[in-house]
Design brief:
68 residues, mainly alpha, elongated
Length: 68
């Protein structure tokens, strides 16, 4: 029988993964909203995915995405 105590850890980790994915993909979404050209959008996505695990790389790609 599946109890609530079995479901809560799975739900907690699923929500955590979703939040992390949204944070990592935020620069790419912002680049799309600010109307970047295709080449800049690709570079922002690559920088976010490759260097996004570091705070500096993520902030750099976020800055690049929001700059007009």
């Amino acid at each position: 029988m599946i109890t609530l105590s079995d479901i809560l850890p799975v739900a907690k980790y699923a929500i955590s993964i979703l939040i992390i994915a949204v944070i990592v993909l935020a620069p790419a979404w912002l680049a799309r909203q600010t109307g970047k050209n295709k080449q800049d959008m690709i570079l922002v996505r690559l920088a976010s995915w490759i260097f996004g695990w570091t705070g500096i790389g993520w902030l750099w790609s976020l800055f690049w995405a929001s700059k007009k």
